[in-house]
Specification:
With about 90 residues, the chain is an all-alpha fold. The longest helix has about 35 residues. The chain is about 85% helix and about 0% strand. Helix 1 packs across helix 2 and helix 1 runs antiparallel to helix 3.
C-alpha cells in the first residue's frame, strides 16, 4: 500500500462528510418549504414535489445546487483517482 493511500482516503472521507452535510441541509430546507407551503407537519406528496421542484429551479437555492454539483464531481474524480493508488 502506497504511503499516500491513508492521506488520500482521509481527504476522500472529508469531502464525503462535507457533501453529506450539504445534501442533508438542502433536503431539510426543502422539507421546511413543503411544511410552510402546506401549513401541516406532514405535507402531501404534491406539496413535497412542488418544494423539490422549487429546489431545482429557484434562484435562492442556486448556491446549494452549485456546491452539491461541485462536490459530487470532486467525489467522482477522487473515486476514479483511487484506481491509481490501487495499482
Amino acid at each position: 500500500m502506497p504511503i499516500l493511500m491513508p492521506l488520500f482516503l482521509a481527504v476522500q472521507g472529508a469531502v464525503f462528510l462535507v457533501w453529506a452535510a450539504l445534501a442533508f441541509r438542502f433536503l431539510f430546507a426543502l422539507r421546511a418549504d413543503a411544511v410552510a407551503q402546506s401549513g401541516r407537519s406532514l405535507p402531501s406528496m404534491a406539496t413535497q414535489l412542488r418544494a423539490f421542484r422549487g429546489g431545482l429551479i429557484e434562484p435562492r437555492y442556486h448556491r446549494h445546487r452549485v456546491r452539491l454539483m461541485a462536490l459530487t464531481a470532486l467525489l467522482m474524480a477522487l473515486s476514479a483517482l483511487s484506481f491509481v493508488f490501487i495499482k
